[in-house]
What we know:
Layout: E1 9-11, E2 16-18, E3 23-24, E4 30-33, H1 34-37, E5 51-57, E6 60-61, H2 65-71, E7 73-80, E8 84-85, E9 88-89, E10 96-97, E11 109-115, E12 117-123, E13 133-139, E14 143-146, E15 151-156, E16 163-170, E17 175-176, H3 178-182, E18 188-192, E19 198-202, E20 211-214, H4 230-236, H5 242-245, H6 251-254
Parallel strand pairs: 13-20
Antiparallel strand pairs: 1-2, 3-6, 4-5, 5-7, 7-16, 8-9, 10-17, 11-14, 11-16, 12-13, 12-15, 18-19
Amino acid sequence: MIETGLGISFDEPTHEFIYPSAAFGPMHAEQRHLKDILHSMADHEAQGPEIVYSIAMDVGLKKDRADLLERELLFGIVAYADGSIGEEPVKSQGHIHAISKTCQMSTPEVYEIWSGEAIIYMQERATDNPGRCYAVRAKAGEVVIVPPGWAHCTINASKTERMLFGAWCVRDYGFEYEDVRAHNGLTFYPKFDAQGTIVWEQNPSYQAEELIEKAPRVYSEFKIVDKLPIYQQYEQDHTKFDFVVRPDLYKDKWLNYIP
């Protein structure tokens, strides 16, 4: 794992996060089981790990807790299993961030990969015409920002290595699944080929033109610093991730957004 400044580790046998004395987090992680996500897979009867991923929402350093509460800002951490689900990689359910009471609009999410390799898949909409579709492949230490209102999911890009990430989101986060489930998932299904490489199969429920595969970029418009963990960036400047909570104040940044 990269050095995050939080000192949190993951216990493989129990699927629980372990916090040092200076940090806080939930006593028990939420566990997402295979049965919870099969409806978002291409094969609804696929076999895979029983616990697909483990989630701890609202973690951080105790000294920062009051400020995080005041800002309506929340940090979460997630650990994905290795292996596969049938022919598909381990991944989350596709969803759109719900409208937040804080800003009266959908909110963004700032991902930072901690270990392994991830693909953050995102599309502009979950309607028949999904708009632009991106698959952003990120390694440990790299950051990816999903903009407000976009449907997305998180994928473990490796069959053999567990993947962990941390993320900034709004405190009253919520997920909308209806449109994604009505289309049997997102526009492109990731699958492992015979060599273990991820390839993409189009979901016929959508009218899509292409999938753009790319590497993460530097988000200079949000003053995100390269190679400095995002929690430490918050420690240096508590206002840096205010755009996560109040994306309505940054509407110009979301126009023609490229991940």
